[in-house]
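[audit] Reproducing an earlier prediction to check determinism. Same input, same settings, fresh worker. If the tokens differ from the archived copy the diff job will pick it up downstream; this log only records the rerun itself.
[audit] input (304 residues):
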Amino acid sequence: MTKVVLIGAPADVGASVAGCRMGPDALRVAGLAQALRAQDAEVEDWGNLPMPAPGAVPPQVAASARGLDEVVGWNRAIDDAVTRALGGGAVPLLMGGDHSLAIGSISAMARHCRAHGKLLRVIWLDAHADVNTADSSESGNLHGMPVSCLLGHGPAALTGWSGERAAIRADAIDFVGIRSVDAAERRAIRQLDLQVFDMRHLDEHGMRNTMTEVLQDVDEHTHLHVSFDVDCLDPADAPGVGTAVPGGPTYREMQLCMEMIADTGRLGSLDVVEVNPAMDTRNRTAQLAVDLVASLFGKSTLMR
């Protein structure tokens, strides 16, 4: 039986629009724990992490990105909680909060994988590439920088947590559903040689062929981490996000994506972030997210 630990991080200091701090509780209200138990998972809900002390970032450094000191504090708390969950043999499920919180969860995962001889692969489901830096970002919002931090190019206070400057290599992350990329990010994607399956790729090749490419080299030595920003979905289906971008994958396309990941049997950890109830209608987006997470853990129409 799979053991899943739910870890709530009610923080939106890294986001451009307030409200996703309510995301963890919205996911609970939508029945996340019950949906996982219906897939025969043993679920422990560790509640929401308390607001941590700031990260003690020097003022001159903290000025490089908006909310940096607080984001460091939240990510350190997440790193600690995820490390404890992994040590207990559980699948950590981080409920955000904004996407800057993935720095702590994936850093902990990278450290764990190196210690256990596993190859960490990250599937980044998002409308945005999140590969800006403090120098390239026009807004200074840290939820647009987590990938750069994980690749070792972000603010020094948010890099090197895994024991290496870069928590992951550029070839260890696959982006799916991207459709909002600014000029600086386009250059970074090319320079870093990142594997991006944008919406044009999905339109031309379909979700099935795209995910076949993404998952083709996953084997028994792979630890799959899915970082699911709910704004990856088309806002017609998931309006409850702070940075909605039209033209995303449909509900059915995303369900196929999740089912194909589940088919590998290699899912080891998960982030669900950027659910913003303040922008939603009757918790519709959190309910959709819960349904898709259930598919990640094996829910399907028929037994396969």
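[audit] rerun output stored. Observation attached for the diff report: The chain has a mean pLDDT of 94.
[audit] end
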